[in-house]
Amino acid sequence: MLREVIGQCGGRAVLLLDTITSLTMDDRGAVVITGSHGGASSGAIALKCFPGLVVFNDAGVGKDRAGIVALSMFAEHGVAAAAVDKDSARIGDAADMWASGIIAHVNGPAGAAGVRFGHSVLEAVAALDTSKL
Asked: What is the layout of strands, in order, in the sheet containing 80-84?
């Protein structure tokens, strides 16, 4: 299972995870890139860990809208979140999202922190204003 800290962003760990349900309380405040969000139930689990930013694959957007539900859920709790265009990275592959993912959906807190539609995940993390998370 993929669980790798690949760097830092404004003093926060940048963490690649196969699934957001792998988050633990030790990951609080991390910038999390996760290849599978699992919809609202995974969003609820992740909220308990208070991540700084979550970027996930939007496999549910347009089908069951789970991705939009998760983005809204995060926004309601002030957690920045963005979803990657499913055609830019393999579903369930956080490493591929980091290498080639393109941001397709951004919630309000993520937008306020500088995450923009059309950025690559790499660009989004590089431009992140962590003081606004």
From this structure: 3-9, 12-17, 31-34, 53-57, 80-84, 103-106
34, 52, 97, 108, 130 from 80: Cα distances, Å? 14, 7, 17, 7, 10
Contact (CB, 8 A) for 44 and 67: no
Q: Tens digits of per-residue pLDDT, 1-53?
A: 789 999 999 999 999 998 888 888 899 899 999 876 656 666 677 777 888 89
Its pTM stands at: 0.88
CA dist 127 and 94 (Å) reads: 19
Beta-bridged to residue 54, according to DSSP, are: 32, 81
Q: Is the Cβ–Cβ distance between 119 and 104 less than 8 Å?
A: no
Stretch (H or E) spanning 13: strand 12-17
Residue 53: closest CA among 88, 15, 5: 15
Assign 58 to helix, strand or coil.
coil
Q: Where are the alpha helices (DSSP H) in the chain?
A: 40-47, 66-76, 94-100, 108-112, 121-126
